[in-house]
């Protein structure tokens, strides 16, 4: 009887190891959550700065009379869409930190992509490319990306019955 191993002692060592691993994993998860929230705060700050900049751009364009220039208006729209992208990225980060369901996160990413492509299409100028063929390839790529994202969004919404 004295030489037999104690079954309680054998069972406690793996449990203590599991407990230590769980505790360390919990600390790491807390750290990741803090970093995610810091990223969200940075995006919120960027958004606030961007809104102030957009307001200043509009005031400046109105004062100089440049507001009637289509390029100036496109620049303002470009800035506004960039702000929407920042908001969507912020919402995605918040959804991650709150452990939202995957569909919500995917939908936010699709919205971000659609806004980004629309922004590119609005500021698209053929003169920005070396040749007409390069501009055509870029236009086709943007169009295919936008159509693909829209189809994915439509499929996702129908899957939820929205």
UniProtKB/TrEMBL annotation:
Record field: transmembrane: 31-52, 72-93, 105-123, 135-155
Topological relation to the membrane, as annotated: Multi-pass membrane protein
Origin organism lineage: Archaea, Methanobacteriati, Methanobacteriota, Stenosarchaea group, Halobacteria
Protein name: Uncharacterized membrane protein, DUF373 family
InterPro entries cross-referenced by the UniProt entry: P_starv_induced_PsiE-like
Subcellular location: Cell membrane
Record has Transmembrane helix as a keyword: yes
Any Gene Ontology CC annotation: plasma membrane
Species, as recorded: Halobellus clavatus
Entry superkingdom: Archaea
Keyword annotations from UniProtKB, A to Z: Cell membrane, Membrane, Transmembrane, Transmembrane helix
Primary localisation category: membrane
């Amino acid at each position: 009887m004295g030489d037999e191993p104690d079954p309680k002692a054998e069972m406690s060592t793996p449990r203590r190891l599991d407990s230590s691993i769980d505790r360390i994993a919990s600390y790491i998860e807390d750290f990741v959550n803090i970093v995610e929230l810091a990223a969200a705060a940075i995006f919120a700050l960027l958004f606030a700065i961007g809104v102030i900049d957009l307001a200043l751009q509009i005031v400046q364009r109105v004062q100089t009379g440049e507001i009637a220039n289509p390029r100036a208006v496109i620049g303002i729209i470009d800035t506004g869409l960039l702000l929407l992208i920042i908001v969507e990225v912020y919402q995605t980060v918040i959804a991650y930190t709150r452990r939202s369901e995957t569909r919500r996160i995917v939908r936010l990413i699709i919205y971000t992509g659609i806004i980004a492509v629309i922004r590119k299409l609005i500021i698209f100028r053929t003169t920005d490319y070396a040749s007409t063929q390069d501009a055509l390839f870029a236009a086709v790529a943007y169009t295919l990306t936008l159509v693909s994202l829209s189809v994915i969004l439509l499929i996702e919404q129908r899957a939820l019955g929205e």
